[in-house]
Sequence to fold (593 residues):
Amino acid sequence: MRAWLGHRVEGLPVAAIAALGIALAVYPLVATLPFWRHVVIMSMLYGAMGVAWNILGGLAGQVSFGHALYFGVGAYAAAYCYKVLGLAPLVSIPIALAVSCVAAVLVGLPTFRLRGHYFVLASVFIMEGIHIVVSNWDRFGAAIGLEYPVYKAKGFADALWHGQFQDKLPYYYLAFLLLGLALVVFRAIQRSPFGMFLVAIREEQDAAQSLGVNVARCKLYALVASAAITTLCGTFYAQYVLYVEPSSTMSLVISLEICFIAILGGIGTLWGPVLGAFVIVPVTELLRAYLSGRIALDMSALADGGIAAWLEYYARGGGGNLDILAYGLMIMLIARFQPAGVLGFLRRID
Amino acid sequence: MAEALLTAEGLTKRFGGVYANREVSFEVGRGEIVGLIGPNGAGKTTLFNLVTGFVRPDSGRVRFAGADVTRLRPDRLCHLGVARTFQILKPFPRLTVEENVMIGALARGGGMSRAREAARRCLALVGLEHKSGVLARGLSTGQRKRLEMARALATQPQLLLLDEITGGVDQPSIPGLIELVGRLRAEGVTLLVIEHNMRVIMGLADRVVFLHLGEKLAEGTPQAIASHPEVIALYLGRQHERS
Fold:
């Protein structure tokens, strides 16, 4: 038993993983304020997306700046199915996954012929293109988006069916499950022949192909797996905030957040994106909550509107750009001091 | 000559206005070692790329074991039994030596543990087993050549194309690499070899194909090629003629 607990999964002993998992599971019972639960929910959600992104970006080395597309598919599919078609999340999830799979294949087939920077650029253009389409598509609420009708559930099972909870606790454990699922999938792929092929493609694509690796098919499978988990995260997000609109689901900012979490935490590693998420998300959420209301960055809007604008600005919690600023600062610092990511700092201590 | 394993028929490839290969035809019999020589820019590597599917010919065909494989991708050809090494070596730098070789074995099917066994066997064959836990980027050029051979062997090829066995390798390592190629033949692998070192090719090859400016100028036994007037004039030079 003791030997088993000391067994390491990518440098982290099983005992430590179990302890962290239990701590995470117990946390919301201690931290009962919604805000503190929210911070960890978002950390776990972004952690799951970072891990999913890492299947394609870290293992296969295909850096995608377009993953918000699959996040958006999950969010919009859930919202549209619920609001317009009256379908519960459990029904809309398979639909979302199917749409996401088709989208991944449509994106992957042409773009995977491109190498290096060109793939990155293509991923941005496709996602931004679809962002523009969705922003103008009345069926999906155009730029305003889709707001969920709030549902008063009769009991827990009913709430689960509708995917709407009054309390943050169920959301917390769903996000916990999502993170666990992402980690298990990543680990399974990493340790399989398929994962070895992805790494071989990352390291030297021509050599991989000459050794019999079907490069195009491996990349496509990696993208589909990565997109599927990201789509589940999108559905969760929609059910959590009960409101989807283009800029908070299908935008470049979300795409960048997903991939920077993986890159800052430690690209290609199992724990890196989780670490990245738990560093970056709390910092940005705290900044959003505490600072952006007090330090006015949107000076122009405030100057035009006089005292009333200032009051409204404070009341609403501020311009909200400071978190993006903090993001940029963290990226610069880590790129400068530890290109291997936050995990690199810990490795150095070892 | 034994039954033809590889047949190239009239292979032509142009890059812009330049013919990299023009109407090149040759055969490699099962169990043979065929040398491919020629000055820089003669089109040797392009010919390799045409045969292994990395570049598609403008015209001509490639047959392997009787089947037309002209437009197949490299990975498909690998599954049929064609493997290669690269002139500019392409190890997977951040994988260990053993993992490098496992990739070749895995693509052939079978699980991780079987691939690990196969990798150990291939590494022993090329004499790299003592390096199996080392990251590939830490190897010397000679060791990288051996690694590429081990990796290619792990795919269980019938035909192995070696692009420059001794190029960039220190003199003391050369005899070992030559001996290794002989050992591969003994394992039943057919070989097509690009090589600049005439002494090496004379000792190894059953037949030699001489390329110049993309065209096949001569073909024959190493002795016949070495005394071929055009080969001497274009490639070997007069010093060789005297000796």
